[in-house]
């Protein structure tokens, strides 16, 4: 049976090379005993304070899984490192410690130089879709069904976790959070409430629904047909969301290997928007996973890698956090659509569809100005009946492949003015939505400086903090955009003759162009 859902993509996120979707493993029925020694009287599971035990019970009740630990647990991480060392992990210059943001993180045990290679996790200690199964029959059934990489890895995690101590990967699974912070742990009602002003809302809902549909497809075509191998009490939707949450937040695609992998110990590294280091296989020795420091670190300083050039919205979707520092990769999406009452609506829509575009269509806007494609799309929307022959040209300019096409010759000053007015109106409406949310009684006193702090007072408070931090970051971009557009419109309206202020879209002319305007007004905009 064809299983289209299995081919689902990750939640509208482009996998950057090397990073866990943290940067963009496993054996069969194990007869070999675990080669690590648990500390006396503690075992491998988390040893928690009474308050942590109550939280763990609450997380188990909410997530529906019996494995994993509290995200603050250092003991399980220490036991993981001890086990990995017995399995061949090199002596480490990094230590797992509790950090201000992220709960746990790897910290330098000594001064580190820029350009040092660290970790050296043996490739046999990483998890991929080719790893051996603790339950061989489960792996064979998924292979026969043609299940793709992501659902295979998710099912693998559930299978190995359900084996408990008999799984080769028990020490690793015991360090995974029982309640991952990905968007999959939000309910649709919570997404609708807290992300109502952000375009991320639709992507979050799509992500939750895609994972749910993938589970239902697997349940109908594989799990239900082999209940002895995939018992219903273990392979639940909650367990599947847990597994996908782990994959979203820890899976990496390493450029040299060209495959997805979970990297025990390496996945304890946290993300910084300023970092440029990432996990990859050692070029001189493909049998180990390393990363190269992109800066020097002092002893005791947390060491970071990059999970990719991701916006705060993308980081929230995959990892469940908003970076506390300025994120240079932030963007917000603006949505434009054709006017259905336009007499030329059908002709314009046909031109868009020829280029693989639609109505409505979303465009990412960053803090450094307008994308060329957004302006070209807006020009098509407002184009009068006098130039229908040019619709295809404008639609092409609105695509990524058409970036840089000069459509200036087919536009009048009124066309340009109308296009900028349209974008400004959409921008102002979005700002109004953000402001309405941020000024509501529910969130107006939320302190975003608490985002990322551990522990939080409650899950409810955590969601509010994340939502406010995201909306503030996205609104800040729109404030900048408003100023750019208003300045451009004043210039257009003040000119009655001569060349248009903007030449080829987004390209700077001698008088500065749109992006020149932005650079001249950075100081003014910084107040936002």
TrEMBL record:
Residues 92-308 form the SET domain. Pfam families: Rubis-subs-bind, SET. Keywords: Methyltransferase, S-adenosyl-L-methionine, Transferase. PANTHER family: RIBULOSE-1,5-BISPHOSPHATE CARBOXYLASE_OXYGENASE SMALL SUBUNIT N-METHYLTRANSFERASE I-RELATED, UNCHARACTERIZED PUTATIVE METHYLTRANSFERASE. This is SET domain-containing protein. It comes from Sphagnum jensenii.
């Amino acid at each position: 049976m064809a299983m289209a859902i299995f081919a689902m993509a990750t939640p509208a996120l482009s996998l950057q090379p090397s990073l866990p979707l943290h940067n963009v493993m496993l054996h069969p029925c194990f007869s070999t005993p675990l080669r690590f020694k648990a500390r006396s009287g503690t075992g491998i599971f988390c040893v928690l304070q009474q308050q942590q035990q109550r939280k763990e019970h609450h997380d188990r009740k909410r997530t529906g899984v019996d494995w994993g630990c509290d995200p603050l647990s250092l003991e399980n991480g220490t036991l993981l490192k001890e086990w990995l060392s017995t399995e061949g992990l090199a002596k480490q210059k990094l230590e797992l410690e509790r950090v201000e943001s992220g709960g746990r993180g790897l910290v330098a045990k000594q001064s580190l130089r820029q350009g040092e290679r660290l970790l050296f996790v043996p490739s046999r200690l990483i998890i991929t879709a080719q790893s051996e199964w603790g339950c061989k029959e489960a792996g064979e059934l998924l292979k026969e069904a043609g299940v793709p990489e992501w659902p295979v890895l998710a099912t693998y995690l559930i299978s190995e976790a359900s084996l408990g101590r008999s799984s080769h990967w028990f020490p690793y699974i015991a360090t995974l959070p029982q309640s991952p912070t990905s968007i999959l742990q939000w309910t649709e009602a919570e997404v609708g409430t807290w992300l109502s002003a952000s375009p991320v809302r639709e992507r979050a809902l799509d992500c939750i629904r895609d994972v749910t549909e993938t589970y239902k497809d697997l349940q109908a075509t594989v799990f239900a047909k082999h209940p002895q191998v995939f018992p219903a009490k273990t392979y639940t939707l909650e367990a599947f969301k847990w597994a996908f949450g782990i994959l979203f937040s820890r899976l990496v695609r390493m450029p040299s290997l060209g495959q997805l992998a979970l990297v025990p110990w390496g996945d304890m590294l946290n993300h910084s928007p300023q970092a440029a280091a990432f996990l990859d296989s050692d070029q001189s020795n493909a049998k180990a996973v390393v990363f190269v420091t992109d800066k020097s670190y002092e002893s005791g300083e947390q060491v970071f890698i990059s999970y990719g050039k991701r916006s705060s919205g993308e980081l929230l979707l995959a990892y469940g956090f908003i970076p506390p520092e300025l994120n240079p990769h932030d963007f917000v999406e603006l949505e434009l659509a054709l006017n259905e009452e336009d007499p030329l609506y059908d002709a314009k829509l046909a031109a868009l569809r020829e280029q693989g575009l639609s109505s409505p269509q979303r465009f990412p806007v960053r803090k450094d100005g307008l994308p060329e494609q957004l302006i070209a799309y807006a020009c098509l929307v407002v184009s009068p009946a006098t130039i229908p022959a040019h619709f295809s040209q404008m639609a092409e300019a609105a695509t990524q492949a058409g970036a840089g096409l000069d459509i200036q010759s087919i536009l009048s000053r009124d066309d340009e003015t109308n296009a900028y007015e349209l974008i400004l109106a959409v921008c102002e409406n979005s700002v109004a939505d953000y402001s309405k949310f941020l000024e509501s009684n529910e969130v107006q006193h939320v302190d975003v400086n608490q985002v990322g702090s551990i522990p939080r007072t409650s899950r409810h408070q955590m969601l509010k903090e994340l939502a406010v931090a995201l909306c503030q970051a996205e609104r800040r971009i729109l404030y900048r955009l408003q100023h750019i557009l208003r300045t451009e419109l004043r210039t257009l309206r003040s000119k009655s003759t001569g060349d248009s202020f903007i030449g080829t879209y987004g390209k700077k002319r001698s008088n500065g162009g749109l992006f020149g305007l932005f650079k001249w007004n950075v100081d003014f905009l910084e107040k936002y």
